From TrEMBL:
Pfam families from the UniProt entry: Rieske
Keywords linked to the UniProt accession: 2Fe-2S, Iron, Iron-sulfur, Metal-binding
The keyword Cell wall biogenesis/degradation appears for this protein: no
Gene Ontology molecular function terms on file: 2 iron, 2 sulfur cluster binding; metal ion binding
Keyword Metal-binding listed: yes
Domain Rieske: 5-102
Lineage: Bacteria, Pseudomonadati, Pseudomonadota, Alphaproteobacteria, Rhodobacterales
Signal peptide: none
This protein's name: Rieske (2Fe-2S) protein
Amino acid sequence: MSDWTELCPTDALPEGEARGFTIDGLRLCAVNDGTGIFVVADLCTHGQAYLSDGYFDAEECVLECPLHGGLFSYRDGSPQGDPAEKPVRTFPIRVEGGRVMVQL
Ligand code: FES
């Protein structure tokens, strides 16, 4: 398990937003749904698309891939709708001193 790395200041991820970040060459999608902040791998497991370019549904707790509409839970990374079959990786986060930290 590696060290904690700063993802962004907390005010860079307001409630209701999903944003893509690149940290150490790794593309991540961070979501703030109002109940918390969640981070998953940004690349869809079905094809070459960034989940942060798709749709974010806080009621269903999913990200929808912009290419074929596959759904992924941003809470546990699990696939939630075709054609998504494999989960996306999730990353632990913590908030400290006004910064969102992620464990890569
Ligand atoms: S590339 Fe994401 S569902 Fe196909």
